[in-house]
Design goal:
single chain, 280 residues, alpha/beta, TIM Barrel, eight-stranded parallel beta sheet, 11 helices, globular
Length: 280
């Protein structure tokens, strides 16, 4: 279980552009198997003080996430639950149906954040209008997007007049997305990092050096770097000890010089698909 101080840190976070609070750190469940694996991961995270869980329709584990939430013993209103509409379900009416299906699988009456998973050309504008409708109906507390570049964001803002609360993208020391981060900060869009730990590719000498300096793991250094850049982060793990380790990032601070050293690792390298060149 989390200590009182750690638990407080794990519930803290930015206030989104509609006034809803979101934790800085959450559990990602991409590639976490439906059934016992995801149930136990969710319970371990909530037991460790996490209050944010991020899933998606395409992950195929929304049912297990819902079970883990119910078995955690923590009140629903203390949790921040995110899911996403998949590419094949995009479009106005189909998005509304997909949302209902996600709620049914999760066993929830609402979610805290609903995202468009990818900017599917010719569909994401209508999909965004469906999310705006869900938000206006009070069925979701905040709406946002995932994997949107600056031009995609400009499209939906100009089209709808509604600015997304969150943009969840691949973000890590090898892909710092500076232009996108600056645009989102300017527009009041909270950036959120998926694959923050570079899918395990943490063997960078700078990270090793800083881990030794601060008495932390390379993963903890990267997660702290995210938070100090004002980026929400959702590392994925199914191991209880790793889930706990990932949460222990609120008791130290990287110096400006060390932040700059990590920034300098940027290569524009993606481990996932490029949103502008992805076969949807």
């Amino acid at each position: 279980m989390a200590t009182e101080g750690a638990a407080r840190a794990l519930t803290a976070g930015p206030t989104l552009n509609n006034g809803v609070a979101m934790p800085w750190l959450g559990l990602g469940v991409w590639k976490t198997k439906e059934g016992d694996e995801v149930v136990q991961a969710v319970k371990a995270a909530i037991g460790a003080g996490y209050r944010s869980i991020d899933t998606a329709a395409v992950y195929g584990n929304e049912q297990g996430v819902g079970q883990g939430i119910r078995e955690s013993g923590v009140a629903r209103d203390e949790l921040f639950i995110t899911t996403k509409v998949w590419n094949a379900d995009q479009g106005y009416d189909s998005t509304l149906r997909a949302f209902d299906e996600s709620l049914k699988k999760l066993g929830l009456e609402t979610v805290d954040l609903y995202l468009i998973h990818w900017p599917v050309k010719g569909k994401y504008r209508e999909t965004w209008k469906a999310l705006v409708h869900l938000y206006n109906e009070g069925r979701v507390r905040a709406i946002g997007v995932s994997n949107f570049q600056v031009h995609h964001l400009q499209d939906i803002i100009e089209d709808s007049g509604v600015v997304p609360a969150v943009n969840q993208v691949e973000y890590h020391p090898l892909l710092t997305q500076r232009e996108l981060l600056a645009f989102c900060k300017d527009k009041g869009i909270q950036l959120e990092a998926w694959s923050p730990l570079m899918q395990g590719n943490l063997d960078q000498p700078v990270l090793t050096e800083l881990a030794a300096k601060y008495g932390k793991s390379a993963a903890q250094i990267v997660l702290r770097w995210d938070i100090q850049h004002g980026v929400v982060t959702i590392p994925k793990s199914v191991k209880a000890e790793r889930i706990q380790e990932n949460a222990n990032v609120f008791d130290f601070e990287l110096s400006a010089e060390d932040m700059a050293k990590i920034d300098a690792l940027n290569q524009g390298k993606r481990f996932g698909p490029d949103p502008d060149n992805f076969d949807f």
